[in-house]
Design a protein that fits this description.
There is one protein chain. By secondary structure, the chain is an alpha+beta fold. About 30% of the residues lie in helices and about 35% in strands. The protein contains 8 helices and 15 strands. Strands 5, 6, 7, 8, 9, 10, 11, 12, 13, 14 and 15 form an 11-stranded antiparallel beta sheet that branches. It has a 4-stranded parallel beta sheet with strand order 2-1-3-4, sandwiched between helices. Helix 2 runs parallel beside helix 3 (about 65-80) and helix 6 (about 145-155) crosses helix 7 (about 160-170). The longest helix is centred in the N-terminal third of the chain and has 14 residues, at about 15-30. The protein is globular and about 60 Å long.
Length: about 300
Amino acid sequence: MKALVVINPKAGGGKGLTLGNKVRSLLASGSDQISYVQATSLEACLSEASALCSENTFDVLVCVGGDGLIHDLLPILIGANLPLLVIPAGTGNDFARTLGVYGKKIESLLELPRRSKPIEIDICEIVHGNSGTPFVQILSTGFDSIVNERANEMRLIRGKIKYVLAVLEKVWKFRAIDFRVTIDGIVLEQRAMLVCVANGTSYGGGMKIAPHAKHDDGILDIMIVDRVNPFRLLLVFPRVFFGTHVKHPRVHFFTGKEIQISGDTVAFADGERIAKLPISISVASQKLAAFTISAHTV
């Protein structure tokens, strides 16, 4: 096996460094050809990974990090048509949860490329201005994006608790936004707290925002939360951890393939800031090959 291992040593407050060293140790005893990227900055990391992929043909890219690193590696993975193996080391690890690799032993994960074939996962494309950005999990706008931005600023706090704290901080001052959402040509105009477009099921460290979403159905799931007062929003919020918010009368779900969103707010995708609205979202023609845990591979 010829593998490119990309390590984010800062992921998960240093967890990336610990797991990265373990991956190095486990792979050192084998006969595989391994190239490592562990740069001091994201820009350097992506530049080095891109250069290696342009000069070599790898069998798999092993990502030791979180959803943010996976998101940033997507253009490289797409361009090189390279299968992805995730070693979850981030704060939320929601893509790893969807793949079933979260909480699994590293030894077992590193065996997946030898024992199984990757599955194909939908890639979504965000068009903002003259730019395009791919994502694989959740796009959020409105209250969600405000919370995400605040949670990303909490450097000393790990896990889903940072999202809970950000909600408690921001909910009291947030006001509903005038959104215009177009789903496959059908226009919806309303004041809402947030609009999410889901390709995966969860974000924020396991919050099941779209429990019925599927990575491989070619369909996007759209969630809109009506205008509610802060106290009522706080009552709805805990349900997200179990996915039971889908039955709340203020929460509405739609499905589509081509979505446009405008409003006075910003968009986040895979936990990363993308751009101010308006944006367009669609399912890309390319697919992402990724290794997952199933009954046949464990």
